[in-house]
Amino acid sequence: MKTLQKTLLALAAGSLLTVGAQAAVTYGNGYTGQAYVGAKVGQFDLDVNGADDPTAYGIYGGYNFDPNFGIEAEYVGSDDADYRGGDIDAKSYGAYGTYRYQFPNTGLYAKGKLGVAKTEIEGDYTRSIGDTEIRTETYSDSDTSLAGGVGLGYSVNPNFSVEAEYDKLGSDADLMTVGAQLKF
């Protein structure tokens, strides 16, 4: 594993351990911090010529320090999509600060997030003339950059929410997902 991947995984694991340790902490405003884990599904929008957009699957976890501010870490991978007769896939690791705005008298909230993400895109296909294979071509791109997203969520009850998000992961990838999270 490369250093950034290890760092992001360590941050995520550390955040989740901190979440567990602080789960019962009550802040000065009477709010008790809340940890959550979730899963999401959607689609990468890749800016790669000749590539279809792969289906995305992800997991995430975070901690809300108060009703508005929190942290979140996520991993999103994909299945193989068509790339010039071959395959292409993508994956992303991210760590974010989050902000939620709760609409009054509803379970509806808006969410924004800003942080750092590493996105990797890999693909390959075989060039051929007629029935003769010439060579296998590959595409590979890895980008670590500032990333962010916006979303809309609905708290079904105090321990369960659903969300729809759009994330900008760098110059070559966007991500649109729907997901669900369990709060504890």
From TrEMBL:
Signal peptide: 1-23
Matches recorded under InterPro entries: Beta-barrel_OMP (IPR027385), OMP/PagP_B-barrel (IPR011250)
Domain of life: Bacteria
Gene3D superfamilies in the record: 2.40.160.20
Any Pfam family hit: OMP_b-brl
Record keywords, A-Z: Signal
Keyword Iron-sulfur in annotation: no
Annotated ranges, domain Outer membrane protein beta-barrel: 10-171
Protein name, per record: Porin family protein
